[in-house]
Amino acid sequence: MSDRLFIFDTTLRDGEQVPGCQLNTVEKIQVAKALEELGVDVIEAGFPVSSPGDFNSVVEISKAVTWPTICALTRAVENDIKVAAEALQYAKHKRIHTGIGTSDYHIKYKFNSTREEIIERAVAAVKYAKKYVEDVQFYAEDAGRTDNEYLARVVEAVVKAGATVINIPDTTGYCLPEEFGQKIRFLKEHVKGIDNVVIATHCHNDLGMATANTVSGILNGARQAEVTINGIGERAGNTSLEEVAMIFRSHRETKIETNINTQKIYGVSRMVSSLMNMPVQPNKAIVGRNAFAHSSGIHQDGVLKNRESYEIIDPKDVGIDENSIVLTARSGRAALKHRLNVLGVELDKEKLDKAYEDFLKLADRKKDINDDDVLMLVGKERSANARIRMEYLQVTSGVGIRPIASICLDIAGEKFEAAASGNGPVDAAINAVKQIIHRKMIVQEFLIQAITKGSDDIGKVHMTVSYEGAHYYGFSANTDIVAASVEAFIDAINKFIV
Ligand code: KIV
Ligand code: ZN
After folding, report:
1. Which partner from 126, 225, 345, 497 sits 20 to 30 angstroms from 250, CA to CA?
2. Quick check: 323 pLDDT over 60?
């Protein structure tokens, strides 16, 4: 008999909290539908009380998705719960996720409260949520650093109040795997009524142990893993979905099974990385560019003789099609459509025509078009309606001369031109933008990355710009890195000049 592990994906809530990873509602629906196809059981769609945008996303995702449960986060506050219930009104299967900090750090410094009062507030929140939905999940924030005996009392009280799922987060990513596993076992052994509810793990990766802690929790009795695609999330991130799914698929002796269609993993990973402008580290387990690349001669020889000598996972099992066609200028619209579909992107005819037009332009500049390029092309559409757009940019630079840039910006339909010099071509171009937009903007972070390799490659630029005490994130990709840098700068400015 196998044991079912429920996969609770929080890419759209914990993952989306990362600065620069914010998605609009249409993009969130796209990710939610891809998660549904992937086979996740629960989608945490947002924190409705936090903003009208989050509220709206939960509403729209509830309408768009059919079989997974849609979950909305709240604090242990009546208004949060009421708003979450409203946002979930169209969900076919709905869950409210409410909770409160239970470690002494949270009780004393965050709430200036007492252990007894926290139990009362937790119970009241669960009872209040039960007025709106049957399925109520309770989180004991910072459970990783909460004393086990007290945690058991909190859990017993909320189970009695009607909670159906108990989430035990290692909020700060502090626990050791054995310690976290024992925490789950302790609850299994000491809480009355615990066998009638599902225990969930929610581990952060501050010490690089999120997945190890999750696995340890599951081997000790938890049956829901809270995860994100590519492990994105606050600070060092959350446990990654792909790692948990492949660990239990590879270790069949555990008899633990998920509903994940693992062949869809790669496509969803690329989609999330591209929409959130969050690169996947090359050596990331399962989905990193090097995860299946054997570079040493000894390894290559071994793999050629028998793949299993050095590979424990067949790349096809996670959807990496090694024979996938590289697109070139001679590829037709159907090939582009097929590649987009593999990557989980469906476009209507008009959008596909536009993407194909951009694809041909890019293929003129770059010989081989890979998956990242294709996703970048469809992502470009997002900036098409921005208030400020670059009309043209001309830069003169070289050795022994001071770089000069002239630029024309279209701001809400009106054209503005300026020229400036700088200590390099990017500096000159950014100074020219500042001549047009006179605000106190400071480039705080500036990162240029090549997508793959080769001097004809696309450069991705991530930029953080500070303005009036807040930070705004900008992104662009272009074969011309000076143009990409200016576009990223403008993308950031578009976030505060509306
Ligand atoms: O890390 C955490 O504790 C959380 C809770 C809100 C579930 O994200
Ligand atoms: Zn979290």
Report:
1. 345
2. no
- DSSP letter at 42 equals E
> What torsion do the CA atoms of 121, 122, 126, 127 make, to the nearest 10 degrees?
-40
Contacts of 268 (CB under 8 A, 6+ apart): 31, 34, 35, 37, 38, 229, 344
Residue 251 has pLDDT above 90, yes or no: yes
- The closest-lying atom of ligand 1 relative to the alpha carbon of residue 167 is 7
Distance 208 CA to ligand 2 centre (A): 15
Ligand that comes closest to the CA of residue 234? 2
CA of 173 to the centre of ligand 2 (A): 9
Q: 171 in ligand 1 pocket by Cβ < 6 Å?
A: yes
The reply to whether ligand 1 has any atom less than 6 angstroms from the CB of 174 is no
Q: Residue 323: which residues within 8 A CB-CB, separation 6 or more?
A: none
73 CA → ligand 1 middle, Å: 9
Question: In this predicted model, what pLDDT tens digit does every residue of 99-135 receive, in sequence order?
Answer: 999 999 999 999 999 999 999 999 999 999 999 999 9
Q: Residue 15: CB within 6 Å of ligand 1?
A: no
Return the residue whose CA atom lies nearest to atom 8 of ligand 1: 14
Q: How far is the CA of 472 from the centre of ligand 1 (A)?
A: 24
Judge if the beta carbon of residue 14 lies within 6 A of ligand 1: yes
For residue 416, with 0-12 CB atoms within 10 Å meaning exposed, 13-18 middle and 19 or more buried, which class applies?
Answer: middle
Residue 380 has pLDDT above 70, yes or no: no
pTM over 0.70: yes
The response to whether residue 144 sits with its C-beta less than 6 Å from ligand 1 reads no
Residue identifier of the C-alpha nearest atom 6 of ligand 1: 141
CB 40 within 8 A of CB 260: yes
Neighbours of 51 (CB within 10 A): 11
CA quadruple 282, 288, 292, 293: dihedral, nearest 10: -20
- The residue written with tokens 């400036």 in the block is 420
Give the per-residue pLDDT at 309. Answer: 73
pLDDT, tens only, 9-19? 999 999 998 87
Q: Answer whether 70's CB lies under 8 Å from 58's CB.
A: yes
The predicted structure's pLDDT at residue 476: 81
Q: Is the pLDDT confidence value at 233 over 70? A: yes
Amino acid, res. 390: M
Question: Is the pLDDT score of 339 beyond 90?
Answer: no
Residue 88 has pLDDT above 80, yes or no: yes
- Residue closest via CA to ligand 1's atom 2 equals 171
